[in-house]
Write a structure and sequence with these properties.
Helix content of chain A: 25-40%
Shape of chain B: globular
CATH class of chain B: Alpha Beta
Strand order of the largest sheet of chain A: 4-10-9-8-7-5-6
Number of strands of chain B: 4
CATH architecture of chain B: Alpha-Beta Complex
Largest sheet of chain A: 7 strands, mixed
Oligomer: heterodimer
Radius of gyration of chain B: 14 Å
Number of domains of chain B: 1
Structural class of chain B: alpha+beta
Distance between the termini of chain A: 48 Å
Strand content of chain A: 15-25%
Helix content of chain B: 40-55%
Number of strands of chain A: 17
Largest interface: A-B, 18 and 23 residues
Structural class of chain A: alpha/beta
Order of helices and strands of chain B: HHEEEHHHHE
Radius of gyration of chain A: 22 Å
Distance between the termini of chain B: 28 Å
């Protein structure tokens, strides 16, 4: 597996050699103050910030290339099309897809999962069939499958997890059977930070001939992902969590599967020919990209990938690992703080609760000190129910965060505890 | 942190810690549930309404300090009031936390509920403070469920 190996964590204590101050200069948003305090942006699992080169690329498109793609004989349309398809090529190399037509541009991971539910699920899953998801899914990887189950009379099965927030793989193995028609699991939990052993899980499903979708929204920003090595059938992710603008995203699918699937939305750009009697759908990837897409955003995603190639991603991952370790240590030392999600394989997300203090109050007080965290259920209400908490506060890191920022976080949490004592 | 101390005043912290009328009301003849799906706040307001007057009121549920304290102080403020006066109080409270108007008569009508005036500096928290009131309003009007998103 070409994902960044956990061996980097062994070197935690050593200097990671990662020049975070230089990296921070690439992100203009980080220069601002909030409530008179330097912004401490720890909400990267919700949306990460955008480097100057990505902003510039978007401006170039809008200034020099803006026009509609795939349909104009004129100069600008050809330029826009080249840039848009160039971004797809970058995505292909980024996740090591076999062909760029396997990379469908969508508005984000949510739309990608819905595309697979409609295109694959509604065609191939029927009454009595079973779909397996996990107990730590984001609502985006629960609700579409529930809708499908309701429509088709299929059954949703859920892989349980332990108190650390690790999936129980024996239970997963036991859930797989000849009725299983689909598996949809997250690469990394947005609420707990757990990294799931997806390669093993994919192998296991394939023994039953079952296709697997990976929700990679929290995976790609932190790990090197190789879809061929994983052998996943679908992999969905969002651009805005990996330093690109909102509205960009990808669902990768194996060409053979995408070919057999129904289109997602109908409209322009996804057809070969239309008469009132019959429409012939376009080839991949157009078949799944009806209407004018978010051209500027997807070109921005291509630029974000270029940006990621300029930094040493193994070093970046080691730096993030170290931030997580340091923050876990600092916050655990504060009386009343409890970390939710203590999986052995974990990255970048630190969910916590404080005795008798609601996360919303924590979030407000942190915000006053310029610290952005997420407070709430993180679109993972079943995770909250599993851990018997109404909500958590969540600090989530990107490689541009610093230990000093973790210190500010820890100090302010001490202040929160003080206010409510 | 001056705006913060405006928001988290001692009296609010006290009601959060020791919410008053925090129980299920066995004699309730009206009740409603309120949700804030955004932050997970969830409460039930119970009313014993007799001759259009709030004879008893209580609540239970979970939420942030602002919503819990708002619910607690609401029960104290509304108990014994006529339905009409309770609704009027809701209107005044809503005005106070959503507008910059510091109309003296509004604040005067609200008595100690004016400790919530700091909430208007925190727009995302307004729903926390008003959820219990929306829920009470629903209970008064026989609506079973409210959601503030």
């Amino acid at each position: 597996m070409a994902t960044i190996e956990k061996s980097v964590s062994i070197e935690r204590q050593v200097n990671t050699g990662f020049d975070v101050q230089r990296i921070r200069e690439d992100f203009p948003v980080l220069r601002q103050t909030v409530n008179g305090k330097p912004l401490v942006y720890l909400d990267n699992a919700a949306s990460s910030q955008v480097p100057q080169v990505v902003i510039d690329r978007g401006s170039i498109y809008l200034e020099d290339e803006h026009s509609n793609i795939h349909r104009g004989v004129h100069y600008l349309s050809q330029k826009a099309t080249t840039a848009y398809e160039g971004a797809r090529e970058k995505v292909k190399r980024f996740i090591n897809a076999r062909e760029s037509r396997e990379c469908i541009f969508v508005r984000g991971a949510t739309e990608g999962i819905n595309l697979v539910m409609h295109g694959y699920g509604r065609k191939f899953i029927g009454a009595g069939d079973e779909i397996i998801i996990s107990a730590m899914e984001h609502h985006a990887n629960i609700v579409p499958w529930q809708m499908l189950c309701e429509e088709k009379g299929a059954r949703l099965r859920v892989i349980p997890m332990n108190d650390a927030g690790e999936l129980l793989l024996d239970e997963y193995d036991a859930l797989l059977n000849e009725r299983t028609k689909f598996v949809a699991v997250t690469h990394v939990s947005n609420a707990l930070g757990t990294v799931n052993p997806i390669k093993r899980m994919i192998d296991q499903a394939h023994k039953y001939g079952v296709p697997v979708l990976i929700d990679g929204a929290q995976g790609v920003p932190h790990m090197l992902v190789d879809v061929q090595d994983l052998d996943c059938d679908f992999y969905a992710f969002s651009g805005h969590k990996m330093f690109a603008p909102t509205g960009s995203g990808v669902v990768y699918g194996k060409a053979a599967l995408l070919e057999t699937m129904n289109p997602f939305q109908g409209g322009g750009d996804m057809i070969k020919s239309v008469t009132f009697e019959k429409t012939i759908y376009g080839d991949l990837p157009n078949k799944f990209e009806a209407g004018t897409p978010a051209i500027a955003s997807q070109i921005g995603l291509g630029a974000a990938i270029d940006y990621l190639h300029t930094i040493d991603r193994k070093q970046a991952a080691a730096h993030e690992d170290e931030l997580l370790r340091y923050a876990t240590e600092k916050l655990s030392a504060i009386e009343g703080v409890r970390i939710i999600g203590t999986a052995r394989e974990k990255l970048s997300v630190l969910s916590f609760v404080i005795d008798d203090i609601h996360p919303h109050d924590i979030g407000t007080i942190l915000d006053q000190e310029g610290i952005a965290v997420r407070a709430g259920h993180h679109c993972a209400q079943p995770v909250m129910q599993r851990f018997n908490v109404p909500a958590t506060a969540r600090a989530s890191f990107a490689f541009y965060n610093t230990k000093e920022e973790v210190d500010v976080l820890a100090r302010t949490i001490e202040r929160v505890v003080e206010i409510f004592s | 942190m001056s705006e913060l101390s405006e928001l988290y005043q001692q009296v609010i912290l006290d009601h959060n810690k020791k919410p008053r009328n925090f129980r299920k009301l066995e004699s309730a003849n009206h009740s409603a549930e309120g949700f804030n799906p955004l932050c997970g706040d969830h409460l039930t307001v119970y009313l014993n309404l007799e001759d259009d007057a709030v004879k008893e009121i209580s609540f239970e549920g979970s939420g942030c300090a602002i919503s819990k304290a708002a619910a607690s102080m609401m029960t104290q403020a509304v108990k014994g009031k006529s339905k009409e006066d309770a609704e009027q109080l809701f209107t005044s409270f809503h005005e106070m936390v959503t507008s910059d108007l510091d109309e003296e008569n509004v604040v005067e009508r609200l008595g100690n509920l004016k400790v919530f005036s700091g909430v208007r500096e925190f727009p995302v928290r307004v729903k926390c403070a008003t959820l219990p009131w929306h829920t009470m309003h629903a209970a008064l009007n026989n609506e079973a469920l409210v959601s503030t998103e």
